[in-house]
Amino acid sequence: MYYSRKLEKNLIKGLNNNPVTAVIGPRQCGKTTLVKHIINNIQKEVVYLDLERPSDLQKLEYAEWFLTKQKNKLICLDEIQRKPELFPLIRSLIDEWGGNTHFLILGSATRELIKQSSESLAGRITYKQLTPFLFNEIKQDFTIEDYMVKGGFPRSLMKMDSLESFEWREDFITTFLERDLLMWSGFSTETMRKLWLMIAHLNGQIVNYHLIASSLGISAPTVKNYIELLSSTFMVRLLPPFIANTGKRLVKSPKIYLTDTGITNALMGITNFNQLAGHPSLGAAWESLVFANLTGNFQSLNFYFYRTNHGAELDLIIESKGKIIAVECKAGTTPVLSRGSYTAISDLKPLYTFIVSPVKSGWSVKPGVDVVSLEEVIQRIGDTFGLPKV
Q: 316 and 381 in contact (C-beta within 8 Å)?
């Protein structure tokens, strides 16, 4: 079954308005499925090459000869990071051909992909990021609890059996460590596994590079390099602090999130919701889920967190054009804000503060402060910033 993705319309718009469109995102998040759905419904002949398939890679042994013959077609190159030397040739061809809708490229590793493409294709390429499934893309068939445990990777979520889903995620982690990691030199599989597990336990917390380094027996710069790799392959995301002129001493280190709750649960050995519900990580898992869904639905907005050295704190600050909204994530169905949260609200004076909880319908706590469901907060954020309905 095909589930429509929120990125579809934006991706088609990008194709129509740019010579090259890049779809980036983690491995196995559904990039190929989305792109094949789109190219089956466009009015242009398509040449599709999967660069992890030897027969397709062979066609590019003489790339200039082959690609020159594809003029007036949409050329789709999947896993482009496997052959970054194509970018100068792509630039030459699109400059020669003129117009738009020439290349659609897919990649799972942003660091090399963006470095290579930005150098060669500046002003000619648009980037569209696909995440694992967002809840509002699949909510008609899955409960929030199932989604929270299995995460949004399609092959994990679609497995009806919880153990089979868990095993798929374990295999995903192993494949990343034993195959994908080999694309970069200087990284240890054993160290990366230990770091990944440590981040799972630190999910949603402030990053302390020196503390992590001490625990792993490596240097702080090495920890930064490892986390940068996890970030560039979409396995983790760093959330910067909101720097406001409040006269308060602010925490200036970023927070770190694993980008998928299913992967987090697999790292910690959690196979079902009953286990998660009784686990100390439940609150962090809910915050991580909310963060992933808000950033996935609103890629044009700016996301931060707010924390002072005296305990004033808000999980998320969403900003655009001078407007700010505050978000607190509470895994319970009778959420209460802390004194530190109210202090932070007083500091920042956001337009609204939303307490996002797994409730069916929300209520007002006081003027400007509302308890809301995940679905409602997405609607309210869109309305506040005047964005199209998602």
A: no
Domain boundaries, the chain: 8-129, 135-384
Euclidean distance between the first and final Cα of the chain, in Å? 21
pLDDT tens digit sequence for 37-90: 999 888 889 999 999 999 999 999 999 999 999 999 999 999 888 888 899 999
**What is the Cβ-side half-sphere exposure of residue 373, based on CA atoms within 13 angstroms?**
10
State the burial class of residue 204 (Cβ atoms within 10 Å of its Cβ: 0-12, 13-18, 19+).
buried
DSSP single-letter state for residue 238: E
**C-alpha–C-alpha distance, residues 202 and 264, integer Å:** 10
Class of 135-384 in CATH = mainly alpha
Q: Is 327 left (phi over 0), alpha (psi -120 to 50) or beta?
A: beta
Cβ of 88: how many Cβ atoms within 10 Å? 13
Note whether 162 and 149 are within 8 A (CB).
Answer: yes
Whole-angstrom distance, CA of residue 11 vs CA of residue 129: 9
Residues paired with 316 in a beta bridge = 327
d(CA 325, CA 314): 10
Q: For 8-129, CATH number?
A: 3.40.50.300
Residues of the chain with pLDDT under 70: 110-112, 390
Evaluate the CA torsion angle 179, 183, 187, 192 in order and state its sign.
Answer: negative
| Phi/psi at 129 (5° precision) | -100, 125
Closest by CA to 107, choosing from 5, 180, 58, is 180
